[in-house]
Amino acid sequence: MKMTNLKKLLTATAFGLGLLSAPVGAFADDNAPTNRPTIVLIHGAFAASDSWDGVTDILLADGYPVVSVANPLRSVSGDAAYARAVIDSIDGETVLVGHSYGGMVISAAASGAANVKSLVYVASFAAEPGETVAQLAGQFPGSTLGEALAAPVAIGNGINDLYIDQAKFGQQFAADVPAEKARLMAAAQRPVTDFALNEPAQQAAWKDLPSYHIFGTADKNIPPAAMTFMAERADARKTVVVNDASHVVMVSHPQAVADLIIEAAHPE
């Protein structure tokens, strides 16, 4: 089988299995520039792969191959292992981008991965080993997420799935997104387990790789002070703060996020 046909077959298979959010996957278009690393996007809790659609459109138009991973949101260690399997399947360099809880995932998945050149934290957690999402979110005042959660859904073994109350989703999660879009996001939100939010980080790849950070001043999930603290602690190459942006800054300001990813793809 010719390599081009094999690439198409594997991409189509991955799309059918839900590994990719669009039929562009881990393989660059044969006509794409060869100096473009693959951008691997990891969504966070209460979001889905399509939360990256605006960013993906920009990156694809600029010639970057993109994989938008369907993050399981079950556990930091398990989700990182899943992401690492995707990373290891990609030929050539990659840039890992994590939103919110996805920052925990990329920090672990990138550890020891030879083909990861940089990390981008989008309204995200850059934890030290031993820290948890719940701990970091509560370290600074300002998060109202706890008040917006719906009743937990028990899934067994003392573990619960957590959702944001759909009636509160827009104001809590996506206040600067058009109301109709926010309603669709609320209906399609992916739950995260309480176990994942309380599982301590084991790796901190940002200590060894260049990191870039972007977040909004109106984030109600993660206090902006917490994200400023984590970016400074990580000695970020660049930090972009978007005035009045919500927690889903990649949805409301895709160009700003894409610009930072492109910068991270070609660090000096």
From TrEMBL:
Name of this chain's protein: Alpha/beta hydrolase
Keywords assigned: Hydrolase, Signal
Species of provenance: Thalassospira indica
Gene Ontology molecular function terms on file: hydrolase activity
Domain of life the protein comes from: Bacteria
Residue span(s) of domain AB hydrolase-1: 39-259
InterPro entries per the UniProt record, alphabetical: AB_hydrolase_1, AB_hydrolase_fold, Sec-Metab_Biosynth_Hydrolase
Signal peptide range: 1-28
Pfam entry (one): Abhydrolase_6
